């Protein structure tokens, strides 16, 4: 709050200073996201590990603790490792985030995720003692995974570079889709192993399939070439058809028909393979994210050096014989320069700075436009989550039912889901905002 | 990009660390906006000064440099002072902004504004030599003022605290409305002093009146009590009725009727008073902004200290006899705590951190919801500006005509202006995006 902190600041700020500062600011942001990439990667790995642990735990509890103990122990050990890598990535970025003024929500959500993870030993103890039910354990894992994915979601919110933001939007949606896939695996396992799907279980399956599809649709819109290729390979895999047939059984077999219990293992195996393939897509996005950050960083540093040289040469224009270099990055229109040709030689320097300023302004405007679609995809997701929480609280219904109700409203009105969600939220003050606020805090438990 | 920068970071990041970091991050952001307040104030003062200079310059040139020379010299001197205060405020905040990773657009727009200001001496010289026409001078002042207001607009974009963002949204819209008022003063002066309004001049008057009204509507939605009171006083002032009557003359008197030229001075005087009153509203918002920042800053520091004490006491729970203090800021629901009562004494610490984490998550979510309306108001404004530029380029029409066309489209379709603007922008790829991009850079000259 005092101005003494930067004694090297000159009293007169110039256009050139701020042109350079704008570039430096972009560079710092890119450095920040290079570090952030490691965090996103560690979250993806930990989520995948916890999904495996959830699967192994359900099998273990489902078998009355008779089977899968060794496989589960192995997963637990691997996850210890993944959790500590996650905590290290966090420790590395903590101060960086605290200095990053828009990170307050991200930091808050990290605290939430860490708090969940702190309960992991206790949850495992209860599983070992069989004092936790399959439902208890599943709920806990779902909640923790949701909180971890939220960290990536919040990280994506803070990106200002369109191509990088797009990759994080793709990442969040694959993560979310894969998590729905994991929940579908658990739901299907419960049905197939008990030999039947009651209507609640069938509806849950349908909801999870639809929710996955919506996530993957958004992913496809923001995916880069390689991850899109992996996605198409996954879709074309014969396994998909098998899964589809088993899904049909799950949603069409009612309370009074029974299924071969041997299907449970097969289902679990198919869905596990599918999730592993989805993880490969995540890894491909992560790698593209890293490369894109490095590429943009190198590019930004080069442009900055270039601009600094140019501006220095403009300041030294004491020798009028030196031709002034007019460099316009991003292909600035030569006609802009021509239009000023009548102003005389004395205006040369003014013109070049003018061109640089214009080019930067235009570039920033274009970036903000490109960023818009990524921001909208995130905002769509956020508003839908809020609307679901509102419906859950207001009508006292489950998450699944709230999703279904939202879909029905959209279908009836011929509108997109986010539109209906937005309309609902705008009426939240009328239909009980306070209740919704309360639920939004406890509803995710 | 290396992790050695913060050797004091412990390897294991805890939920409590991140809870504290989230608060610290908010505090830094508030400090940043305390500094930003000074910049906003200096922009407001400089814009007001340049509006006065534009008025004085037009009168001076309009009188064939016979009158108003002394008044103009006085304004020029005052503006030298205001411009250097603006540059000082910029120099003070420059490093702060460069560290603030979302500031790249703001810094770019500051460079643009400074570059305009650098041309001020040259423009004044041309006025003194009478080598600049009234239209040249007016265009230059309008462009410079527009660029200065854009700085405040971009600053408003970076705020994460809803009540502070709301005040900046109110500020930007008063500034914009006041500038339209200034342009109306110039347009009216041109008409009244020439004794007639042709249809182009009348249409321009109508456009400027409508544009003002739209700005003030948004201002009213975000204004705090005091500025709203000042606004109502302004609206109830007898001057408003006089201005309204003169506006009627301006839009209804055609090419072949003539007006008393003495009206010009009266019009100029009335509009100047009105602008001075609008400046008082700006000052009132600025003062509220400052107080709100200080208030929120003090509050945030107190909460942080409180949480640090609490978390320290939770960590020292070696003595089980010490009662654990459960503090839930923002009125966390006591039932949340009760719901955990069955978990045994060993869970006390876990519970309290849980409450703090939940309270922070909920608070952040609520803040993001409240922030939404401020962000939307800014986004509405941005998209309308873009749509106007698109229409100007695509149909090769003036700014006024583009505004009128946009209004007509909205009226015909029974939609709000931002909706029509959004629909237009979504079609920009079809109707010539590149051309629009080019125009967006040169169209503001």
UniProtKB/TrEMBL annotation, chains A, B:
Keywords: Coiled coil. The keyword tRNA processing does not apply. Residues 357-384 form a coiled coil. Pfam families: ANTAR, NIT. SMART domains: ANTAR (SM01012). It comes from Marinobacter vinifirmus. InterPro entries: ANTAR (IPR005561), CheY-like_superfamily (IPR011006), Nitrate/nitrite_sensing (IPR013587), WH-like_DNA-bd_sf (IPR036388). It comes from the Bacteria. SUPFAM superfamilies: CheY-like. This is Response regulator receiver protein. One of its GO terms (molecular function) is RNA binding.
